Amino acid sequence: MTQATLPPALDEQAIDDPLSAWGAPPSERYEELANRFRPLFARIRDSAVERDLEHRLPHDEIKWLREAGFPRLRLPRDQGGVGATLPELFGLLIELGAADTNVVNAVRAHLGFVEDVLTAHEKEWQAHWLGLLAQGALIGAGLSEAGTAKVGTFATVLSRTPQGLRLNGKKFYTTGSLFADWVAVAAQDGEETVFLQVPRTAPGVEVLDDWDGFGQALTASGTAIFENVTVEPEWVRPSAARFPYAVPFYQLVHLASLAGIGRALADDVARRVQQRDRVYSHGNAARVADDPQILQVVGRVHGAAYSAGAIALHAAKALQRSYQTHLDTDADAAQREHANALAHVEVDQSVSVITRLVLDASTDLFDALGASATLRTAGLDRYWRNARTISSHNPRVYRERQVGAFVVNGTVPPASYRVGNG
Fold this sequence. Notes:
The structure is a single chain. The protein has 13 helices and seven strands. It is an alpha+beta fold. It has three domains: about 120 residues, Butyryl-Coa Dehydrogenase, subunit A, domain 1; about 100 residues, Beta Barrel (Butyryl-CoA Dehydrogenase, subunit A, domain 2); about 160 residues, Butyryl-CoA Dehydrogenase, subunit A, domain 3, CATH 1.20.140. The chain is globular, with a radius of gyration of 23 Å.
């Protein structure tokens, strides 16, 4: 069937809508929720290529999200949020990722901290941070290190001195901290690991934009230095327990970013094929948009994007079940552990599939276009660069092994990941 004979239901508006074929939303209210943010997402996407070329950090874009209440989505309504479910949150992260995955990465640590607060057993600590989050506080990352500390420990130290608590150390991969009010830090307190939040502007805190990766270049995922920083006791979390689905949550944020990249590149290549006038003498039609081989490429990358998003949203349901089971007072320890294990495994078995789909699509899209598509000003290379960089975090090579170990031997994936010297 040609476009000239399309049935009335497939009008021009439906064809031009990049959201029209991504499947059913994750909830009945999702469209109402998403429509609040879609104009903002479009505004962020409009400048994504320009910012990438100029290495302009998304300070304004993060500010817009804060003003719109995006960081408070998961908070209860009486705390300034909307009580978004995890599938709803990840649906929005996919759409934000289609606009700019740098921005998704920049709020990743904050979103994880929100989960820590929502699931905390320390009610006084929880109430304190719910209040700050409701006021708009934004949290950045200060967990990972690139130094000489052994796996399972940190070189960053919280010391008890006659003058009070002092923090000293250096962190890397401090994603989002340059945009944040507080930096979430992991440190050694003797033999124990402690978690604390330190104001980004406190004396002795310095956050550098020295991330030199070829992708995700605008996340400010560089170095944070803590030099004899005075730490108030209330900044230290009473326990080192994280929310039970922390590992799959942080990984699923990356998968949502990849699914967003898939949607963006699928939309981009379709639009460019629609607009392309130049054809090859050995092609199949007088218009590129009518060439069946080119349409096949467009369909392939669109199918990859659809599948990546569908898998990510399905895995988000497993995280929601873990969250609900954790808060269910009638659930016993075995039920909680089972829900947590399934959340880990569902995300783990999604990693390799989504990664492969999006990395392949970010290369295949060029088969539908000419050499001009490789110009830096087109910005199409950023899809592969960003996807490849995201996929290098928490390497996918271990995920398939963990799934195999679970289904064959019942081995539950690890509850936390650490990087350091062996």
